[in-house]
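yo

u said u wanted the structure for the complex thing, so here. seqs first:
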Amino acid sequence: MIENAKVAVVGVGNNTSALVQGINFYRSTGSLVGIHQPQLNGLGVENIDFVVAFALSEGKVGKDLHQAIFAPPNNFPRLDAELPPSGVVVRDGLTDSTGIRRVAEALEGAEVLLYSAPSGRPDIARAYAEAALLAGVAFVNTTADPIARDFSLLKRFEEAGLPLIGDDLASQFGSSVVHKTLLRLLEERGLTLVSSYQVNLGGTEDFRNLAENPASKKQSKMNALGSEKVQLAPLGYLPHLKSQKIAHLNIEAQGWAETAVSLDIRLQVHDPSGAAGVNIDLIRVAATALRSGRGGYPAEAAAHLKSPPGTSA
Amino acid sequence: MIENAKVAVVGVGNNTSALVQGINFYRSTGSLVGIHQPQLNGLGVENIDFVVAFALSEGKVGKDLHQAIFAPPNNFPRLDAELPPSGVVVRDGLTDSTGIRRVAEALEGAEVLLYSAPSGRPDIARAYAEAALLAGVAFVNTTADPIARDFSLLKRFEEAGLPLIGDDLASQFGSSVVHKTLLRLLEERGLTLVSSYQVNLGGTEDFRNLAENPASKKQSKMNALGSEKVQLAPLGYLPHLKSQKIAHLNIEAQGWAETAVSLDIRLQVHDPSGAAGVNIDLIRVAATALRSGRGGYPAEAAAHLKSPPGTSA
Amino acid sequence: MIENAKVAVVGVGNNTSALVQGINFYRSTGSLVGIHQPQLNGLGVENIDFVVAFALSEGKVGKDLHQAIFAPPNNFPRLDAELPPSGVVVRDGLTDSTGIRRVAEALEGAEVLLYSAPSGRPDIARAYAEAALLAGVAFVNTTADPIARDFSLLKRFEEAGLPLIGDDLASQFGSSVVHKTLLRLLEERGLTLVSSYQVNLGGTEDFRNLAENPASKKQSKMNALGSEKVQLAPLGYLPHLKSQKIAHLNIEAQGWAETAVSLDIRLQVHDPSGAAGVNIDLIRVAATALRSGRGGYPAEAAAHLKSPPGTSA
Amino acid sequence: MIENAKVAVVGVGNNTSALVQGINFYRSTGSLVGIHQPQLNGLGVENIDFVVAFALSEGKVGKDLHQAIFAPPNNFPRLDAELPPSGVVVRDGLTDSTGIRRVAEALEGAEVLLYSAPSGRPDIARAYAEAALLAGVAFVNTTADPIARDFSLLKRFEEAGLPLIGDDLASQFGSSVVHKTLLRLLEERGLTLVSSYQVNLGGTEDFRNLAENPASKKQSKMNALGSEKVQLAPLGYLPHLKSQKIAHLNIEAQGWAETAVSLDIRLQVHDPSGAAGVNIDLIRVAATALRSGRGGYPAEAAAHLKSPPGTSA
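structre next:
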C-alpha cells in the first residue's frame, strides 16, 4: 500500500495552480498524457497530498487551496475536471525572516516543503529553508534565489539527513532546453556557431517580476545555455498572454566551406505546466529520499534545475 | 607522411561541386569552420585527391572537373577561393548496365568510388557498384537507391575485403536530424506528441527529381523520422532557391495536464554543403577501412545515412 | 419587416457546415465578432434561410441538413451553440448533366443557388447554373470551375435579370489576400521584389482534391497574385490539420542600395470559416440584386473572387 | 539642367552612412533597385550633394565624411562601390543650446539641414532647428524628439517661408508599416482583433539608446499602430545584429463564428537602409519646397513620419 507524499507549498501562484489542478486531473481522468515518469521510486503522479499552504495576498490567505489558486493575478486556465474543496486553508506566509518557528510548527506532518514563491527575495527563501530544517522536512527551491548553491546550507541539510533541491526550475519543456539541445546538435554535427538569440514573452505575475528585475534570472539562463555567443533579449511582459509563454529563438551557424545555416524557432507553452511537470518529479524525489534517509542533494534532481550546486550564484 | 585518399566520383552535380570546392577552400584558407572532424583516422579534410570523374551531360563530359562543376543545371555558388584546373577530365558515365568493365578500368589507382548521381536509377547505381567490386575499390552510395541494403551485394563486398557504405546520405545538418532531435527531446521530457509536419523546399536538379518521383525518398525519410504521427508534405521545387533548402517543421504536443505545446521551426541550409560535410567523412572512413582490409559495412558510417542496411527498401 | 433570403445549396461539405452553423451561432448569441458587414443592403447575417440542399454521398443524402453537415469526411468543428433540426432534408445531387429539370423544380421558392461543391467538375457546375436559369434563381459559384468567366453564360443570366457571381471564392482572410497585400506594400514603398513563395497545407477533402488535381486552382491563385516572381509550392494534404489551413509565405526583396529585406509569414485559419465569411456576403448581394431586378455580374462581388469575369480560365 | 540639392547633415551615424553610400552607389551603378521615386519634383536620387556635416565623437570630427561614416560604433556594411573622398570635413557639433550662431554660419549655401542624430536630446534638436531658421535653411527632423509637433516652432518656419519636416522617421519598410498594414487588412476583411504583439531586435548604437530610454520612442510607435490591443515588447539590443533589425510580430484574431486566425511574421531589414530610403525623399521634398517658397509642413511628407504635427508628443 502506497503512502502518499505529504507536501507543504509556499506560494499559491500559477505554478501551484497547475500542479494542484494537474494532480487532481490525472487522479480523476486516469490520463497519462504529458507525464514524464508515471512512477518514480514507487510514487505515482496521483500520490501527492497537499497538507499546508502559505501565501501573502489577501485574496488567497484564508481561502481553501482549491479556491485560492484561481484568485488574481493567477491566470492559469481552469482545467476541465471537477475540483472539490481541498480542506487545506491557505495560511499567512512570511514577509521577512521572523516567524520561522511558526512556519516550522505548521510543517508538522509534512515531508516536503515546495518553495514556489516569486524569485527575488533570497532572505525569505532562506527563512523557509530554516523552517524546513527545524521541522525535519525536505526543501525544494524552484526560484532563482541561491539556496541549494549555498554550500553551508546544503551541508546543514546533509547533516540533518534532509534532502535539499534547487535552484531555479528548468521547465519540462521550455526555451532553455530547446535552445541548448539545438546548440548541442550543431556542435555534434561539426557546425560552427556564429550567433544566436532568445526572446521570451509571457503574461504571468512571475514574468512581470522577472522583467522588472532581470539580473538573477539572466545569470541563471546563462548557466543553462553556456555560450557567450548566445544573446538574451530583455523579457517581454505581455499581459494578454496570461500563463502562456512564447519564445523566439534564432541560431546562425556555418557549415561546410563556411556556408550559412539558419534556424528560427517559435515555441509556445504554458509556463506553469512546464513547472508542474518538473515539480511533480522533484517532490517525489525529495519525499522518497527523505524516507530513505538520504540527506543533501539528490543527484537525480540536478538535470531539472538551471542552477544546481556548483554553478554561479 | 600522409598519403592522400584517391577518389573517383560519379555525378558532377551540386554535391560534387560543394565537395570539390570545399576541399580546395579548406586547403587554401586553413579554416576549420564547419568541419565535423578535422582528422579522421589520420586523414585531414585536405587529404583528398580526385582522380576520376563520371558524368552524363554534354556540358560536363570532356571538361576539366573544376570547370564542369559550374555547368548548368548546377547552381551551388562559386566559393571565394581560387580554383586552378584539376587535371581531371570528366568522362562519359553509364546510361545502362553495359560498360561496367570500361568503368572498372578507369578506376585503376582509385581507392573510393563516391556514387553521387541523382537518386532513382538503381540499375545504374548497381552497375557502378559492380565496377567497384571488379576494380577493388570501396563504394559509397549517397543516393536513396538500395545498394548497401542489398544483403547479397554487401556480402560480396565483405568477401572481397572492400568497404560498402550507403544508402541515402543524411545531411550534416538537415531537416531530418533537426526534426528527429526535437521529437526525441519531447519524448525524453515526457511530453506526448499530438501531430507534426515537415515541408521541404529547394531549387536543385536533385530536388526537382525527387519532387517528381517522391516514393523512394519518402520511404527513406520515414526510416529517419520513425513516427506515423509525423506527416511529410510534398517536396516543393522552387527554382529560385537554387542550392538552398528551406524546411518548415511543426510539432504539436501535450505536456502536464494535457496543456498544449507548439514548436515551429524554419531551417535554411545549402543542401550540397550538408552533403559534402558528410561525404568528406564517408570517403575517409572508406579509404582507411580499405587500407586496413576491413570489407563490408563500417559501423561508424551508419549514423550518417538515412537507410543503412537493415532498414526498409 | 425584413424578408429572409431563401437559399439553396449544392454541396454539404465543410464550407456549408461553417456557413450553416455560423448563421445559427450569430442568431443565437447576438455576437458580431468576425462579421465583415453586419448589414448588407438591409439583410443581416441572421436573415438567411436554407430551403433546399443537394449532396452526393450516402452519409448525407436523406439526412436533415443540420445532421448531414457533421457526416465524414467533413471535419469542421462543432460550434458551441445548440442546433435544432432544420427541417430541410438533403436531396440527391447531379452526377452528370442530366436532371437539370428535376433540380429546377426543387429550386422553386429559392432566391439564390449557392454552388459549393468541390472544384474540378465544370460540367456539373454548368448543369446547376442551367437549372438556376430555368428556375429564375441567382447563382453563386464558389469553385474554381469557369462559370462566371463564361461570357455567353453570363449574358444569358443578364438577359434573364438573374445575378451570376463567381468564380473561385477568395477567402475572407487567406494566404492569397495576405500575400497580395504584402507584395503591394513592398511596391508602394519602392522596394524591389526578388523572389517569393507560398506553401499551403490543409486537411479537408477539398484540399485533398486540389492537391491531387492542382491545375485549375493554380491558375486561379496566379490570377490572384499576379507576379511571376511568386512561386507556389505544391499543396500539402495533411489530414491531421482537419479544417485548418496553414500557409507559409516568404518574401525576399531589396531596398535602398540593394540591401536585403526578408519577410516570413505563418498564417493559420479555418478554411471553411474564411469561405463562410465571404459566402454570407455573396448570398446577400445575390438576393438583393435579384429582388431589385439587377441581372448579370454585381460589381460589388468582384473583390471577393479570385477569378472574376475577364481573368484567365 | 538640374541643380543638385545642397544638404547639411547632423549626425554621422549608420543612417548617414547608408544615405551617403547609397547615393554614391546609385550614381555609380545606375541601378534603380529599391528606389521609391526615381524622380521627385524633378530631382533624381543622384542629385544630392552633401556640403556640411556635424558630429560629436572624436573618431569622426575632423575626418572626411566618406571616411567618418565607417568609424565605430557605426556598423552599417561597406557597400560594393568605390567611394572617393567627399571633400567635406566633419565639424564639431553642438552639445548644448549654445553655438547656434556658429552652426548657422556653417550652413551658408545649404538648402536642407537633415537632423539625423540619436533621439533623446530635444534641446539639441531644437538648437539646430533654430540655426536652420537663422540661416534660412529647411529642417528635417528624423528623430522622435518633438520638433515639427511643436506648433509655435512650426509657425515660425512657416512665416519664414522655410519647410519643416518631422518627427520620427517611418522606415521605408519596417515593423510599424507591416504591422499597421496587416491590422488594417484584418479590419477591412471584417475580422476582430483579439491581441497582437511586436518585438524589435537590433544592434545599432541608436537601438542601444532606445533600449535604454524607451519612453519617447514607445509613444511614437503607439501613434503609428493606433490600437491598445497591440503590445510592444521591450526593444532588444543585440550587438551581433549590427545594422540589421529583426522584428517578430504576432496577430491573433477571430473570423466567422469566432473561429481563430493567427498570423506570425518575422521581418529582417537593414534599419539604416530603411531610413535612407525615406530620407532621400524628405530631402528632395524639403529642397524643392524651399525653392518654390513653400514654408511650413509639406503635406506630402506626413506619410513618411510616425509622429507628424497633430499627434501626441
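Chain D touches chain C through 48 residues (CB under 8 Å). The mean pLDDT of chain D is 93.
cya
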